[in-house]
From TrEMBL:
This is Bifunctional diguanylate cyclase/phosphodiesterase. Keywords: Membrane, Transmembrane, Transmembrane helix. The keyword Protein biosynthesis does not apply. It comes from the Bacteria.
Amino acid sequence: HAAKQTGEPVRRWTPALDERAGEFVRLGAEIRAALDHDQFRVVYQPIVELPSGRVAAVEALVRWEHPVRGVVSPAAFIPVAERNGLIVELGEWILRTACRQLAEWRATLGDRAPERVSVNVSARQLARPQFAATVAAALADSGLPASRLAVEVTETAVFEGGQAVTALHELRALGVRIALDDFGTGHSSLGLLQTVPVDILKVDKSFVDNVTQAGRHTVIAEALFQVSTGLGLSAVAEGVETAEQADALHRLGYRYLQGYYYGRPVAEPDFALSAAIAAGSEPVRA
Ligand code: C2E
Ligand code: MG
Ligand code: MG
Ligand code: MG
């Protein structure tokens, strides 16, 4: 078809593109088979509350245990599942698995279990008018109260408004929390906070990486914390890998941290208290 007026070049159908299309179809078929053969697993990464070091919540992250390739990262197959629509079935399975798992931990561990599980939801799932009903059914079948579930969506999934934002209102009405994932890296970040129902901002790892060096990342990490508290939201800092980063974030006011420093995503996380951060670093409040 004709080139768009923006001047985008028309992409020619080259053998390389053809191979990629073939790879897309092959991988799609493999995902279908993997669903049928129960090759997906859900792992859980702690979200730690400071200063106690308690595991307040966990994020559910999917893994593909491929019989030949080993553990495949979601970055390699979620985009394919999003494009061919299989994310709807896979996503519902992840949601149901995560709800059942937290209900089981709550039943066996009581208050030593995390309070909440956070589940990633893709744009394609959110765009379906049935999405809130699917969530309600997963909660009812697992016995997990709605307040123990959060859905993580990206700014990109909701910035166009429409059915995705309707779905978030419906989820909120059920009592499910809404987290904006990778916050600060997508479209129209701050504007979204005026129109989209949100409870939790997950501040992207890119702002955490250099938070120990005074510089622009630190300024942004601090500003995002101030925005979230000012709006009555909780802020979670993602991708915390060192004690120094944890300490710097705590000084900026952050109370919820997630990252390899506290634990990698695993099938059965350790819910014992994580090492508290350096003494004497009381959070600075505005
Ligand atoms: P995300 O939702 O932002 O998840 C955080 C990713 O960062 C996870 O990668 C996690 O393992 C990784 N991570 C956590 N702490 C650290 C750290 O300290 N350092 C570093 N370098 N990485 C850290 P993962 O599990 O590979 O997932 C990648 C992305 O794939 C996720 O990003 C999410 O967008 C998507 N994804 C994962 N599971 C699901 C799922 O069940 N459904 C959907 N729709 N998407 C998923
Ligand atoms: Mg996430
Ligand atoms: Mg994230
Ligand atoms: Mg991320």
